[in-house]
Design goal:
In chain A, 60% of the residues lie in helices and 5% in strands. By secondary structure, chain A is mainly alpha-helical. The first copy, chain A, has 2 domains: 66 residues, no CATH class; 87 residues, Winged helix-like DNA-binding domain superfamily/Winged helix DNA-binding domain (Arc Repressor Mutant, subunit A, Orthogonal Bundle), CATH 1.10.10. The relative contact order of chain A is 0.09. At the A-B interface, helix 1, helix 2, helix 3, helix 4 and helix 6 of A face helix 1, helix 2, helix 3, helix 4 and helix 6 of B. Chain A binds a DNA duplex through helix 4 and helix 5.
Chain lengths: 194, 194
DNA sequence: CATATTTATTTTACTGGTGAAATACCTGTT
DNA sequence: AACAGGTATTTCACCAGTAAAATAAATATG
């Protein structure tokens, strides 16, 4: 856990501990099921369906994010820095701070800070661009690249382990539905910003 | 980029912009699909399945969280404060700061700060408990309760709207799978903390 | 019943994010 | 070529969170 997130609950007001009657899952009750049944009791006329979805989404991600960090922090990296490194690795080209910011959905200021850190640690290099002297071209150092290449398989194995309780079919359904949702949200919200 | 959350990418190192071949969704390509195909190009031997799931989860939540806030901020509330209020509302009883912290998955210190704010705004009241003078009993004021009762339907309608692009079947599948995942994660990770 | 331990909450010092302003540079227009 | 406007990045002041220490009260133990 440690450093970290704190990203809060979800749906339309969540947070809970234990299970009680719901209607969407079917095995053991999850935290959100209890929240839903509480609402059903105090405000029975509300349609809480969005909470069943969004609340669970949010809580899953909150839990995953605590968990996911484990292999990272072992290397003294936080998730946002890791994301910068993996972005550079998979794009496989020099990138500017602005591109990194857009790709990682971070603010410019945040990227500036992360880059300072990563440079100090010798994982990333910056080179002033020849044609546009406002921008910097960033690249992984050999060490940065080696770190990611070493860390990524561990990270993936760890994540795979976290999901291993779902069946293959569940994982692929989940991927597919989330992909649709993501496209919808990108369309609706992506437009509002960049 | 501008305003913003900053909640970062997902899977095992994400962040992207545009679509390219994947294998899990089927309609238009989402951001994560592009990330996956980039990895396939530079590290073809990696099994990126966890990223397909976790990356999408994380990104959906990041987008939803930006979006979700809208009705709240209109009332000058941030999500964490809203969560405190909704928790009190749906539990429908006096609660202590510690209980609120556990329910909302926040640290004690964070709750202390939020309560100070909510008290100042006259939305929450604290009463020193008779039997245990270490604790405070918190309750919504009439105003706090009215605010939540007014806000919650808007919030739910707004969230419902965000999900309206999915079919009823997709939403309920999503709920069900996430419920299973949540139970798994709670078991595995919930144990590590409280 | 005194004292050690545990539990509840707040305080403190600090960190990493944010939006807005500052800085530096490019580009298009006249 | 001068300059208005736009874009890239960093700096700034600030805020909300965190972990750990401080405070205070309950409970358990000898």
């Amino acid at each position: 856990m440690a450093a970290e997130d704190g990203r809060d609950a979800g749906g339309a007001g969540d947070g809970a501990k234990d299970g009680a009657g719901d209607g969407s899952g079917d095995g053991a009750k999850d935290i959100v099921a209890r929240v839903l049944s509480q609402w059903r009791r105090v405000r029975p006329e509300l349609d809480t369906e969005p909470m069943a979805v969004i609340g669970r989404l949010t809580r899953c991600v909150a839990l995953l994010q605590q968990a996911e960090e484990a292999p990272l922090v072992r290397e003294g990296l936080a998730r946002p820095e890791f994301d910068v490194l993996t972005t550079l690795r998979r794009e496989d080209r020099e990138m500017t701070p602005g591109q990194i910011a857009r790709e990682t959905f971070a603010s410019g200021a945040a990227v500036t800070k992360r880059l300072r850190l990563l440079e100090e640690r010798g994982l990333v290099e910056r080179r002033t661009s020849a044609r546009d002297r406002r921008v910097f071209e960033l690249s992984l150092t050999a060490e940065g690249r080696a770190l990611i290449d070493r860390l990524l398989p561990d990270q993936l194995a760890y994540e795979s382990e976290l999901l291993s309780g779902l069946t293959e079919a569940q994982r692929s359904d989940l991927s597919a539905i989330l992909s649709d949702l993501l496209v919808l949200l990108e369309g609706r919200l992506g437009g509002l910003r960049g």
